[in-house]
Every structure is written in C-alpha cells, then in structure tokens.
Amino acid sequence: MKKKIPRREFLIGACKVLATGFLATGGGVGIGMKTVFARDGVMDWRKFWAGKQWVFVVDTYRCIGCGRCVMACKEENAVPLDKEVYRTWVERYVEREEGVTIESPGGGLDFPLQAPEEGKQFFVSKLCNQCQDPPCVQVCPVSATYRTEDGVVLVDNQRCVGCRYCIQACPYGTRFLHPVTHVADKCTWCYHRLVKGMRPACVTICPVGARKFGNREDSDSEVTKILEKERVRGLKPEKGTKPQVFYLGLDEVVM
Amino acid sequence: MPIREDEKVFTQQAVVRVGLILASVLVVFFFARWLVTPESFGQYGRYRGDSIGEAAAREVSFAGDNTACKACHQEVFLAVSRNEHGKLNCQSCHGPAAKHANDTALEMPKVTGNAELCGPCHMETAGRNKRVATVKLQLHSGGVECTRCHDPHRPYGKLRG
Question: Less crowded by CB within 10 Å, the N or C end of chain A?
Fold first, then answer.
C-alpha cells in the first residue's frame, strides 16, 4: 500500500523546494540582468528637456520628391538601404478624374519619370509624428517605448521583445521591425543629433527647405513663427493622437 | 449557539499561519520584482531611464552645416555661394561628411556628375514643382553627362561664358 503523505507535510516540502529553486535560479538570472543593465555616466535629462518642445513642419509646396531625405535618414540611422523599411519616406499623389494615385516606390527614391498632367500633383513626406498621445506607447507590453518630456517617442532596444504590437497600433505606419536588430524601429527626429544641438539629418539635407524643425517654446524659431502665422494641419486628427508633425498645404486626399 | 466539537474555528495559531504565508508571498513578489526591474526603470517615467542615453549615443554621419566644409574648401565654397546652389548643404550632393570633417585623412567618396546625381531634383516628372529647373533628359542632353556642360557649383556658369 502506498504511503500517504499528510497534506501539511507535502505543502511545506513543496514550498521549501520551490523557494530553494527560486533563489538558486532567480538569483543567478537577477545578477546577470543587473550586470547587463549596469549604468555608467548618468546624465540628468530633465535639465536638457527644460524649455524644449520639438516640432516638425513639412512644407508640401516646396517638396520636389528628390528623396535626399530618405537617403540621408537611412545613412544616418543605420537602416539597411536595400530593405523595404523606412524611418521617413516620400509619397507622390496624382489626382485624376477617375481617382487618386498614391505611390512611394523605394520610399520615394525610385519615382518613375512621368509626364506632368493637368490637375493636382504633389509630394508629401512622411515620418513619425511623435504624437502627444501615442498609441504605440500605450500598447507596448514591456514599457520599451516612451515619450520624452521634450516630445520625442523613443524605443528601448534592450527591452523591446519585437512583438510588433506598436507597429500595428501606429495609425501612420511609421514603425517597422528592424531587419538587423529585430526590434521595433522608427524615426526619432535624430535624437542623437538633437542632443548635440544639430537638426535631424533629413532637415539638414533637404535642398529646398521643405522640412523644418525647431523648438516650439523658442519664440524666435522658424517653426514657432510658422505655427503662429500659417494654416497647418497634422495627419489623421480624428485618431486623437495629437501628432506633432505639421503640414503646410496638406490636401484632403492625403492619408 | 454553542460551537460543536467537530466544527472548525479560527484559532490564533491559524491566523498567524495565514499571516506568515501571505507575508512570504509578498516577500517573494517584491524580491522577484526587484530582480527583473532594471536599475534606471522609473527614473523619468514608466521606462528605463538609461535607454535615453543609449538612443542619444548613436554616431553622427551628417555634419550640421557647411561651416566645417568652408574651413578647407574656401574657393569652391565662395563660388557656389554666389550661385543657384548657394543655399544647399554640401552633403545634399556629396553625401555624409561628419567623419571626413573630423578627420580629413578619411576621404569622401567621389561624386559622379551624371543624371543619377542631378536627376532626382532636375528631371521633369509629375508632382515636381517649378521651384527648380527641370528638364526632359532625352531632349535636353540625350544622355550626355550633365557635367559636360554644367558645373554643379556654378550651374548656369558654363552656359553663359
């Protein structure tokens, strides 16, 4: 006949085994993780953020669809040139009687030459809108994406598990899974340049001044003056995300 | 009503036992949380504070403006600044130059003067506005290299003189 173990003894024993196992494995893992996340030169970002609210303005009247911004962005941010992923891209809209054609071959680097026609034809560049109320941040299950106090949504490459919820949540389609790092990637308005007092690479490189960038809290900046005087609109206002990329001359067909 | 002998009652001992179990569950929970939470998590918000620094540490490829270029390439700089391309950033055509600006021993890649370079801005296509001069390549040059007639630093120069 089987020996009956009293329930109490069994529970106590089980607890002991679990506790030992937990301490042995968990402790090891914990020490390992703490080493991975070790910190060195700690900077107080609140000092950098004070008095800064970055905004981006796209002047669609100026854009000539040359794609220099797309190229510069890929080179600056190590996004593979030969892969169909873009932190920023340019779309061409051609309006005809039968409907609108929207295309962005190669992110705007390979527009086929096409004779100009009657009717509206224009380029619109797209990038992360750094929303004030970003859905991508809300859905991230591991808190790997967040919005800094100066208004830029960043991705924590070490914490991201590549689940792609954020990619689906973004109403603007600006996120993608990076083909090399296999974590979510997106435009950061070149945060590494902002901290050095430089403008994003696409803004620096734009030959016609279609992309403008600056601090909204600085009353002398070009973007502040545009936002105060010009009629601007963000993309998909009905989504309630409060996008921070403002477009001059945005046509209603632009999605 | 009197308590029957076989009816279970909460003795003091039982309360203590339950308390101990709850306490140990809490200890295990907080210990586990401490283990898996990165050190800088929550420093600025519900995210790992150190990741801001990591994002900001990326190396810069494109220099901020033409100041560094001007320091060495004065002649070209003066020529171009009086011409149609005067307001452009050098890197719009020449490519990323931050490394070259920091260490001039690292040479810039050569830029070709064909339609691949000039075309993205100057070939006529739907949507391209008239802010820039546009041409139908086949009618304009028949495929001859743009630099045979034009100097990108003085785009109309050669035609005039």
Answer: N
Domain that holds residue B36: 12-56
CB pairs under 8 A between A and B: 162
Q: Is residue B74 part of a domain?
A: yes
Q: Is residue A9 part of a domain?
A: no
Q: ipTM of this complex > 0.85?
A: no
Helix residue ranges, H only, chain A? 7-36, 45-49, 68-77, 135-139, 165-169, 191-194, 201-205, 222-229
Residue A39 confidence (pLDDT) above 60: no
CATH number at residue A67: 3.30.70.20
Q: Residue A4 domain-assigned?
A: no
Domain residue limits at A188: 46-133+170-248
Q: Indicate if B98 and B137 belong to the same structural domain.
A: yes
Tokens of A108: 């705007």
Cβ pair A89, A125 in contact under 8 A = yes
Question: What DSSP line would sit under A187-224, residue for residue?
Answer: --S-HHHHTTT---HHHHH-TT--EEEEETT-TTSHHH
Instruction: Determine the 3-state secondary structure of A38 from DSSP.
Output: coil
Say if CB A183 and CB A173 are below 8 A apart: no
Instruction: Tell me the chain A residues in contact with residue B51 when contact means C-beta distances shorter than 8 Å.
Output: 154, 156-159
For A60-100, the pLDDT digits (tens) are 999 999 999 999 999 999 999 999 999 999 999 999 999 99
Of B95, B37, B9, B59, residue with least CA distance to A204 = B95
Q: Which two tokens stand for residue B69?
A: 């270029």
| Subunit contact B91:A121, Cβ cutoff 8 A | no
Residue A17 domain flag: no
Q: Distance, in angstroms, between B129 CA and closest chain A CA?
A: 6
CA–CA separation, B47 vs B49, rounded Å? 6
The answer as to whether A18 is a domain residue is no
In B85-131 the beta strands, taken as DSSP E runs, fall at: none
